[in-house]
Amino acid sequence: EKKVAADHAHLVLIDETGLFLNPTVRRSWSLIGRTPVIGGDGGHRTKVSVIGAVTVSPRAHRLGFYFATAVDGYFDAEKVVAFLRDLLHHLPGKVVVIWDGGGNHKGPVIRAFLARNRRLRLERLPAYAPDLNPVEVVWSWLKWGRLANFVPDDLAELDAWAVEYLVQLKFDPKLLRALWDRSGLPFPTPIIEQPGLPATQ
């Protein structure tokens, strides 16, 4: 938090997940004697991969959310770089990205992109600490909430609904803040500026 505040940088937390055709099954209501039946054959491992970023603006500390999907694919280093490039297009000034130590978050492709974009800084989350990343809570909200017990006809339909729900989240700052507060990461302290005085926290 101190590094981000000192540089007046956007704070960005990034994570990826996969959505499968077989549903996330949750207990639900039904009429007595009519047990609900959920489809899915349990054999398909094809998926819609999703990458998401929760952002915090440097001064007003407004929350933002950006995401991308890959139907029947995954986010390798090249696709992660494409996502970072789009983020830098939307976020002016310095940007600090915090993410895990996944293989797609390091290597020559990532290092080359970092060397060309000096306003970007990468920081790693502590090992085995997914609870510190609010994006993990977004995935839980999506899988165990909006898409629970949902059996799509194909990956295209799954992708369409995932995009629909994530777009809704993008334009709902109160929900986004509520999801952040469910994580183990404290929300950054807003910077207060007074005329003639240096900024304080």
Span between N and C termini? 11 Å
Mean pLDDT: 89
Tell how many strands the DSSP assignment holds. Answer: 5
Write down the overall geometry.
globular
Q: Helices and strands, in N-to-C order?
A: HEEEHEHEHHH
**Percentage of residues in DSSP E strands:** 15-25%
The largest beta-sheet arranges its strands as 3-2-1-4-5
Structural class: alpha/beta
Radius of gyration: 19 Å
Condensed summary:
With 201 residues, this protein is α/β, with parallel strands linked by helices.
Defining key terms:
201 residues; globular; five-stranded mixed sheet; alpha/beta; 6 helices; 34% helix
Protein architecture, described:
The chain is an alpha/beta fold and 201 residues long. Helices cover 34% and strands 20% of the residues. Strand 2 (47-56) and strand 3 form a beta hairpin. The model has no long low-confidence stretch (mean pLDDT 89).
Helix and strand arrangement:
Elements (H helix, E strand, L loop, with lengths): L1 H6 L2 E11 L26 E10 L6 E9 L5 H14 L4 E5 L8 H9 L3 E5 L9 H13 L8 H16 L2 H10 L19
Parallel strand pairs: 1-4, 4-5
Antiparallel strand pairs: 1-2, 2-3
Helix pairs in contact: 4-6
